[in-house]
Amino acid sequence: MIVLKGSAEQFGLPEGSPYVTKTEIQLKMAGLTYTKEPALPMASPKGTIPFIEYDGQVLADSTFIRFHIEQEYGVDLDEGLSPVERATALAVEMMCEHQLIPAAGYFRWLIPANFEKGPAHFFDGMPDGERQAFLSTVQERVRAAMMARGIARHSEPEIVALGVRCMKAIDTLLGDKPYLMRDTPCAADAIVFATLAECMTPFFPSPLRDAAIRFPRLVAYVSRMMDRFYPDFEWDAGVGAAQKAA
Ligand SMILES: N[C@@H](CCC(=O)N[C@@H](CS)C(=O)NCC(=O)O)C(=O)O
Asked: CATH 3.40.30.10 occupies which residues in the chain?
């Protein structure tokens, strides 16, 4: 039995971490039975979630978990795709992981009001006296990581422009298809969905979210993926409310 170590239902999402969402959906795509337990990144051998435990072993990083799923259980999560479609799907996955998730992460972690209502609660269990100083350290560490990654070197309008460019590319590739490449989801749909849902959740107001929900096909795609992989979760992108407010 596989144990998926991740985050939890939070921030208006069935799973708070986009990378854990990717792995969870890929486990579901492969039809594997798993249980899920909350874990902090520091419990992972790579310092990040997701990681899995199986047969007394631990494996970290969503992509290496995908490789394990495919090799160990003989499944191909891109079954039916041509070599060019596989390459395209990988390019989109990389765009999400290396540009759109960092853009969304910026607004989740470095906008003080969003940090307070969201990630700051990861540390609710700490004694009050220590918590505030720890939160400042966490924010400094996240800002430094986002500087190293590049995203925090840009102004907010520039970050939105980078994110919208990615969303336009996904919207164009998706077109009127139900899923990214074909009529059934492929592996990259897991991270594309996770990324777009992270951008769209009304829990974290931001100009990136305002831009995301102006792509009707992407809004419909997120709802479609949500219905397919998290049928019990009540997803609400808040599009109607945003239109009324505009
Ligand atoms: N390449 C990793 C990235 C995972 C990742 O960055 N996870 C975040 C949560 S969304 C994390 O654990 N961050 C903790 C940190 O960077 O210290 C994967 O695909 O699993």
From this structure: 2-73
Lowest mean pLDDT among 46-55, 131-140, 163-172, 210-219: 131-140
Q: Are the CB atoms for 206 and 214 separated by under 8 Å?
A: no
Q: Please work out whether the CB of residue 194 comes within 6 Å of at least one atom of ligand 1.
A: no
| Ligand 1 atom nearest to CA at 65 | 20
Per-residue model confidence (pLDDT) at position 244? 67
Distance, CA 2 to ligand 1 centroid (Å)? 19
Q: Which amino acid appears at position 162 of this protein?
A: L
Start and end residues for every CATH 1.20.1050.10 domain found in the chain: 83-245
Helix (H, G, I), strand (E, B) or coil at 185: coil
- Of all atoms in ligand 1, which is nearest to the CA of residue 23? 20
pTM of the predicted protein model: 0.96
Q: Of the candidates 168, 220, 179, which has an alpha carbon nearest to the alpha carbon of residue 78?
A: 179
Q: Residue 42: is it exposed, middle or buried by C-beta count within 10 angstroms (0-12/13-18/19+)?
A: exposed
Going by pLDDT thresholds of 50, 70 and 90, the confidence category of residue 123 is confident
Q: For a substitution probing ligand 1, which of 48, 106, 123, 140 has the most ligand atoms within 8 Å of its CB? A: 48
Instruction: Give the mean model confidence (pLDDT) for residues 238-244.
Output: 78
